[in-house]
Amino acid sequence: MIxxxxxxxxxxxxxxxxxxxAPAPAAAQDAPIPVAEEDRGDGPITTSQEIVVLGSVxxxxxxxxxxPVLSYDSEFFQRFEPLTAGDALKRVxxxxxxxxxxxxxxxxxxxxxxxxxxxLINGERVPGTNNDRSFFMDRIPAELIDRVEIxxxxxxxxxxxxxxxxxxxxxxxxxxxxGGYVRAGGLYFDDKELEPSLxxxxxxxxxxxxxxxxxxxxxxxxxxxxxxxxxxxxxxxxPDYAVDDFDNREDQSDTRDGKDYSANATYEIDGDTTDFRxxxxxxxxxxxxxxxxxxxxxxxxxxxxxxxGNLISDNSNVNxxxxxNYSIDAKLSHEWTLGKTxxxxxxxxxxxxxxxxxxQIDFDVDFDEGEVPVFEQVFTATDLVxxxxxxxxxxxxxxxNDIQFVAGGYYQKKKRNTAILDADGEAEFPxxxxxxxxxxxxxxxxxxxxxxxxxxxxxxxxxxxxxxDGFALVQGKSGGLKWEAGIRYETTKLDIAxxxxxxxxxxxxxxxxxxxxSASIKxxxxxxxxxxxxxxxxxxxxxxxxxxxxxxxxxxxxxDLLGNPFLAPEMSWGVDVGYERRIGRTGVAGINFFYRxxxxxxxxxxxxxxxxxxxxTFIYQxxxxxxxxxYGVEFDLSTDLGxxxxxxxxxxxxxxxxxxxxxxVFGKRRFNGQSDYVYNIGFxxxxxxxxxxxxxxxRKQGAAYDRVIGEEIRTTYxxxxxxxxxKRIGGNFTIRAVGSNLLNGQKRExxxxxxxxxxxxxxxxxxxxxxSEKAGPVFQLMARYAF
Length: 787
Description:
The protein is mainly β.
């Protein structure tokens, strides 16, 4: 097979050409680099006018830590008005998503599943409700963000759950803003829906310290349309499948609608020897997901129900979601004769409450035999609470000659309670009325009282995880060399209980510990050129649904899944090697090579025992039996064009080539869901004399492939184009118009579905499905006023 990458190859060539052209006029290249631009992590207090009325184009910062860190201030994202932290991450290197169109939830650093990436808020872990322990980035409004840091390797000072790397969302604090601003605007969607966007931020001196508070209301809406064509065979087996093997067509409307309410606050006191900070954030999501699906027995017709028409089923699915997540932490640090000691205590909680109903009328019956349509109804109640309490203590000692020794400990207690209960019902359709109109009538009209709710298999459990870690590292600098080397010892104790069956309560405990060494260097070859190198051992803890001891029937195709509470973490040795070059006063370009050797991979293994569906089905269990490797190249560029006489023109872009290899029961494949490339290119043009700026960004990610027992999925996305136009009025007011998803990029998925492992190995399909999803362009108008 010949694969072409004309678009992103052209992007890479353009970026490389810009990098090669960078050393143009000597005067521009040799200009002194201000310290504030070289390390912007702790700069002077920013006024609200500087946030509202941007004076220059934002660029990627050049980090000074020994670790390989890419830092992006909010100015880098703000002009494209991202709604969430996930939207902001679409513009940084190597981050992909397998989300629905116009949504960005589970960030996939290096294209790996979200569970391989460590998500931090203000440098601390946050709980999420997902089974793979990941935190969805669309829970954090972009307006709260001060900067985003991509930490490509790991350090002993942080927990080691970062096989792919770490994403740290740094929220604004009291020492980074003086004054306040209000934000107001709206978003207009393809279905003519209008949603509000409102915000207020204020920072200033209060008593002996400084306070920052922020409030935000964000309307959320996603009017998706899906279409699926299903066949009994695929082109792989039958080139004429479209004619011979058509089974059904499904048309679906899927609307996600809701509001996000958020608040954050920070209070800090910086003394001569003692500093104190307390901070927290709160996000509440009130959301409904409404799906309406029609299945037809014809590839194009939309006539009424059988027997005269083409409609074979009418389905209504409504899910009401109420989520709350908050985090609060306090930090006290003190410098004394023996060094600097810091104590940090934090608590975080995530509550997820969902109530879902699914009602369906099935018209696909044998009317000649006197059968009548069947009405089915299901109600599912989900309540999940995830709580984390953490304590972190570290002490730093000066050893002389710019060398420091840091040692500390970390304690975390995590408790996760899950309750999933459902009730169903089935009845004959009261009377087949040929006047039934699927566009005027609704299966919800036929709902009757549900039976009492009962726990689903494995749906009522409690997991307690206690961690006690110790770490030590040495860091230093000498001339142009910065370095760090350390080791972390992580211990974990798990207590797992399943209460789904009150007559057979399952309770298991499991302990494990790991040594995680790491080392990083950063060496300045010249004032503009530097190399970075890192090596680290990291791990990924098992998914929660895999360590539950319950047996789930028909979870793997027609076969069953039996959890394994004794799973050990997946382990990885990783290497990153990079080169960076500063361009002019603000620009930077870099290239990075990474490699991960992953062992103890968790794969589903056939136990050989017969499954609940009888002959031909089995019980599968996750075991640590696999190995894999992940590797790739990442290139990024962010600079103005001052070296060719265009100081008010900024260009930015990145392109990543991603690859991996893993063996499963079918042979070799990539890691599931890893796109083979992702790129983002764009520009911003500022016209200071007019108080106007405009720009565009174009993003595309390559195909991703998933293969599990019973199903194979290939996912592709169309390109995403965003454009903004901005007008500044005076020194306090900015109005900005933004259009996103302007190319109406579609998500397309191809499914191969099998009844069992034997059929999958023999390529005997149960169903072949082609699905497409689109949502249309989104337009927003946003105004900010500083006071």
